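>> received
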Amino acid sequence: MTQPEQPGQPARRGIYLQMVRDFRAQPEAVYNAWTDLAHVTDWWGPEGFIVPEDRVSMDSREGGRYQACMVNTITGDELWWGGTLERLDPPEHLSMTQQWEQPDGTAASNTTLITVDLEARDGGTQMSFAQGPFPNTKERDSHETGWNSSFSRLAEFLARRS
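>> returned
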């Protein structure tokens, strides 16, 4: 989907992924699941992947860098990614860059921007997620599949903690 123009904001061109998910948890809990290393290893990555605690690092402040590695539980293949925490406005908003990387942090793909907006709704939280721009729809669709699975894992994680 091409990103629509927002009044008062510069036009963004390109291919973007936009998703909305509802969680039965307060915005603070969802926000913390995104930004606390003690939680991200429980849900980052789609089904069939794990993020080992020793393969993730995060400097949880604006401008801080993060890096993580998803490990395929069947093949052992590793997929590294990382970026910078751009804006942290707890518990309503966070944004970060993301790109695939080599284990040493060398870029292996284009950089995208992830934005997460959290709104309290009916005793839970509505999360609006956007990522892009992607170089093509195949890349966007691949990320959508992965994020859908990750967000299902996030819902399960939040349910276990309530």
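>> The radius of gyration is 15 Å.
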